[in-house]
């Protein structure tokens, strides 16, 4: 990895004032330009912008909107929304541009971490938040917790995780090219009949938690393709969510030695309420403001404004808002 260069001074403070005037989530004094070093290429211009909004948002969409606004001003730059307090500051409260290179380098290094294991009874410390793809303003993860490949996890603003949680991310690198190694070693005469080629491919492992979402204690999430929680989703304790399952149809080999399926996306809409000890299985979409009753196993889609309960969960009733049509 190349050495990090010092951050550049803002080339046009007026552009930052313009952005702050257009986007109420931003502050002109909490944005900074940075020239990000690239291997065998010219540095990439990046605008770091702290999130200081009061309304729920989607930082991915906000980054795209800010990029578009910069383009309108004739400024080309990548935009990265960071949590409030991320930018280094001088004693006078202004951004310490001379320290931004080291701050960025530490964040890049943190994202190489393959696993977070914190057994304390507290909250995940500030320096560990850089391990994630995104970690929003005023979000917190209570510990103990275990999270693999946190660089695949995007956490919005005001998100809260309960204690004793476990997140298992399964991108391609989680397998390390080892699919089938133990099966061939333990059952050589049987494993030759199963083709393990390419089983670690096509696994983006993208977990997103929207603004204001709250997970209760003892959550367990497995993601190899895509799991997305909307805004202000509320879950009780003992939640299980998975977008994949272990192959079991190969009856001669134990499932523990076979790779998981490549998954089907799970999407949980805005304002969903999930009761205690529920399981949300692969391929499921739960619509906006739906309610999942306690102890339910959700195997099929649940429409918006529906109450679903049971094993497997079935829609019991609807509570759709009244139409404004006359």
What key attributes describe this structure?
326 residues, alpha/beta, GMP Synthetase, Chain A, domain 3, 7-stranded mixed beta sheet, 6-stranded parallel beta sheet, 5 helices, 24 strands, 26% strand, disordered N terminus
Account of the 3D structure:
This protein is an alpha/beta fold. It has 2 domains: 13-109, ANL, C-terminal domain (GMP Synthetase, Chain A, domain 3, 2-Layer Sandwich); 114-318, 3 Solenoid (UDP N-Acetylglucosamine Acyltransferase, domain 1). The protein is 14% helix and 26% strand. The chain has a 7-stranded mixed sheet with strand order 4-7-10-13-16-19-22, with no helix packed on it. A hairpin with a 2-residue loop joins strand 1 and strand 2. The radius of gyration is 22 Å and the shape is globular. The model is unreliable at 1-10 (pLDDT under 50).
Label the structural class: alpha/beta
Number of strands: 24
CATH class of the largest domain: Mainly Beta
Q: State the end-to-end CA separation.
A: 63 Å
Low-confidence stretches: 1-10
Overall CATH architecture of the largest domain = 3 Solenoid
* CATH topology-level fold name of the largest domain: UDP N-Acetylglucosamine Acyltransferase, domain 1
The gross shape turns out to be: globular
Summarize the helix and strand pattern as letters. Answer: HEEHEHEEEEEEEHHEEEEEEEEEEEEEE
Rounded to the nearest angstrom, the radius of gyration is 22 Å
Treating each run of at least 4 consecutive H or I residues as one helix, how many helices?
5
Q: Biggest sheet, in brief?
A: 7 strands, mixed
Spatial order of the strands forming the largest sheet: 4-7-10-13-16-19-22
Count up the domains: 2
Strand content: 25-35%
Percent helix, as a range, is 10-25%
CATH evolutionary superfamily of the largest domain: Hexapeptide repeat proteins
